[in-house]
Specification:
Number of helices: 20
Distance between the termini: 35 Å
Strand content: 15-25%
CATH topology of one domain: Endonuclease, Chain A
Largest sheet: 10 strands, mixed
Radius of gyration: 27 Å
CATH architecture of one domain: 2-Layer Sandwich
């Protein structure tokens, strides 16, 4: 097993100030933990391959969004500092460049290890230098007949001084000579091309990547020219565009505004250049003409995009590939749900709890199907942030509207990288007769809520779904999320009021049970932190247990620190960014932070205060990030059913006991393996086994 890659302590110190960790550095540490999974032998080989690809996709998005934002800030507010570590945007960019360069090196080491392990299991990914003369000729034929016809070419001259490199597309730039003239040739690699080609005549699988073929034969595209040098490249463009609207936009169709802004991504500034050679004059040429700092030019001699690793298993016999993957799993349907003649009647009698992916999302879909036909249902209201590309949820909302139900859909057009998908579904839902609301002015609606209003005679009854994840059938099988379906009247009335307030753009409202950002969520959670502080000061036990994706909100961090200083024990499960440094004597010594990166993406958010009968627990759509607590419309709902609260508490305690996938955040800023005391416990695998027994 390859030793997990470590970032030197001297680098850590640049991003740490007192008990605070820089947000961007903390994210890079999270993505390093994803990369570590590619060499973790507790994962099957093909799953390890996927982790390497996920690491790369994560890094791409980080450069487009976070680095893009910092580049913008370095220009518009060069002296502004981040509120925790007091680093300017320029200082953060310098540090990011240093860490990213180390991550590129680590990725190469991990890929080489995977390549060797794949070869041991019958799949050899060839390099050009590995090819025999016969294989070279076969590759030449593949290039000429399957690749060359789909390449786009350009020779740069006075009429074409430089082309517009598209975001994340691979190119080859060539130094050309003809009749004593020197020119630059550019090959644009069509993204629709296969990434892997299988060579014939072998019992074992021999695969040659597209990149190797293009490097080897790109010169054949420039008939009549001599190719004296060449280099593969890819640019990453800033994707951080402004989604705010102002008075000048009010007379325009918001969908058209968003379409234009999404299209503008292709023309935004370049924030990263990737090349496959570090020593080429062509690299110097590109740095100059693209105006890129050398520190944001990164070298990978093989690939810029590792998505092809997802398809490697397709070349093996099904039985052999299955041995190199996680065992197949289908979410369970709780027995009380599967046996119920009517979900409406079941939820009217008792709260129902679902934990994805261990429980299936089917009951939520089935509830909407029942509601689309049930005469008692008067209206359905739902918030949508991200939908599956083939969404049953959307189909059932359309059916309900066509059946005469009043259907209101709050759909967020500013869900980053899902804007086009949401535009498509907004049009489809509107055509079916749904009322469409495009969020709230200058607030993203990130809440996860369905409000169903039933009319029995003169009486109104309510069923409300509240969750931590999107209404997306695809991600419900990959992300861990918690869901409660309840007929509680106060929550139902809050839900109806919530949709009414969204419709009239009123964010200044206090609800009876729900905590809703930006008005009451942060203040409500802080009130419970203060309650634990007062208990500790009075000599009683103060305790906080929370799970989230990220922790960056300084006001809440400072409250956690105050609670720790007062003697409150705090246990945090933070998958990604954590700007709070635990274990610092006299300040955060009562705080423990762990992160779990495993088979499923940990996505649920839980905030629990106190123990036993004194415990107050919320599940929420919101992380403890300023963007969630102050700049989005988010919901936290109390867990009123003690049976469900106990189950959630048991979930969290199992995660805290994980000694396989858990990593502990230490006072020096490093994430380290949790000590194995007793038997090994992988929390996600434990939950899978439980779900299998129940189903």
């Amino acid at each position: 097993m390859i030793k997990e890659f470590a970032i030197p302590q001297k680098v850590h110190k640049k991003f740490i100030r007192d008990i605070y960790v820089n947000r961007e550095f903390s994210w890079l540490l999270f993505n390093k933990r994803v990369l570590d999974q590619s060499v973790d032998l507790t994962n099957p080989l093909l799953e390890r391959c996927k982790f390497l690809s996920i690491f790369t996709s994560n890094l791409d998005e980080f450069f487009m969004v976070r680095v893009g934002s910092l580049v913008n800030e370095s220009i518009t507010e060069p002296t502004a500092t981040e509120n925790k570590t007091q680093l300017t945007a320029a200082k953060q960019l310098d540090g990011i460049a240093e860490v990213a360069a180390r991550l590129y090196e680590a990725r190469s080491v991990c890929y080489n290890a995977l390549r060797k392990d794949l070869a041991k299991n019958g799949v050899k990914i060839l390099r050009a230098s590995d090819l025999t003369p016969r294989q070279t000729e076969e590759c030449r034929e593949i290039f000429l007949h399957h690749i060359l016809p789909l390449l786009s070419l350009m020779v740069l001259d006075a009429k074409h001084p430089l082309m517009q490199f598209e975001n994340k597309r691979t190119y080859v730039i060539c130094q050309l000579e003809k009749d004593g003239r020197r020119m630059i040739g550019v090959v644009s690699v069509n993204p629709s091309l296969d990434r892997l080609y299988r060579l014939s005549g072998e019992k074992k699988v021999r695969l040659i990547p597209l990149e190797e073929l293009v490097r080897l034969f790109a010169g054949l595209a420039f008939t009549g020219y001599t190719v004296s040098d060449q280099m593969m490249l890819r640019v990453t463009r800033n994707a951080d565009f402004d989604t705010a609207i102002d008075d000048t936009d009010l007379e325009r169709d918001f969908t058209e505004i968003m379409k234009q802004r999404v299209e503008s991504r292709a023309r935004m500034g370049i924030v990263r250049l990737e090349v496959d050679r570090a020593d080429s004059k062509l690299k110097d040429f590109l740095l100059k003409v693209l105006k890129i700092s050398p520190k944001f030019c990164f070298t990978d001699e093989r690939f810029f995009d590792y998505k092809f690793l997802f398809s490697v298993g397709n070349y093996l016999p099904r039985e052999e590939a299955a041995k190199l993957k996680y065992p197949p799993f289908k979410g369970a349907v709780p027995r009380e749900v599967s046996m119920a003649p009517s979900l409406i009647d079941l939820i009217s009698a008792k709260d129902v709890f679902l934990s994805y992916p261990y429980d299936s999302m089917d009951p939520v879909v089935d509830l909407l199907e029942e509601c689309s036909k049930d005469e008692r249902v008067s209206s359905i209201m739902i918030t949508i942030y991200r939908l599956a590309h083939h969404s049953r949820i959307a189909e059932l909302l359309c059916r309900a509207a066509e059946n005469g139900k009043q259907v209101t859909v709050v759909i967020e057009l500013c869900a980053r990288f899902d804007e086009e998908n949401n535009l498509y579904f907004a049009n489809k839902l509107q055509e079916a007769g749904c009322t469409i609301i495009y969020g709230m002015e200058n607030y993203k609606v990130h809440s996860k809520i369905i409000s169903i209003v039933l009319k029995d005679g003169d009486e109104l009854r309510y069923i409300t779904h509240l969750g931590t994840g999107n209404y997306n059938e695809s991600t419900s099988r990959q992300y861990t999320d918690l869901n409660i379906l309840t007929a509680d009247r106060a929550i139902g009335e809050d839900a109806v009021a919530f949709f009414r307030n969204v419709a009239i753009c009123n964010a200044d409202f206090t609800y009876e049970r729900l905590l809703v950002a930006p008005k009451t969520l942060k203040s409500g959670l802080i009130r419970y932190i203060d309650r634990e502080i007062e208990k500790a000061k009075a000599g009683k036990e103060g305790y906080i247990l929370a799970k989230m994706n990220s922790l960056t909100d300084k006001e809440i961090i400072d409250k956690f620190v105050a609670a720790s200083e007062a003697g409150v024990k705090i246990e945090l499960i933070v998958r990604g960014i954590c700007c709070l440094l635990p274990g610092v004597p006299g300040k955060t010594e009562n705080i423990r932070v762990i992160s779990i990166v495993g088979r499923f993406l940990e996505h649920s958010r839980v905030y629990s205060f106190g123990r036993g009968e004194d415990r107050v627990m919320y599940i929420s759509s919101a992380d403890l990030m300023t963007r969630n607590t102050d700049k989005r419309v988010e919901i936290a709902t109390p867990v009123l059913d003690t049976r469900i609260a106990e189950r959630i508490d048991a979930f969290l305690r199992t995660m805290l006991a994980d000694n396989v996938k858990a990593r502990k955040l230490c006072p020096d800023g490093e994430y380290r393996r949790v000590e194995t005391l007793g038997d090994a416990l992988n929390a996600q695998e434990y939950f899978l086994a439980q779900a299998a027994e129940q189903s």
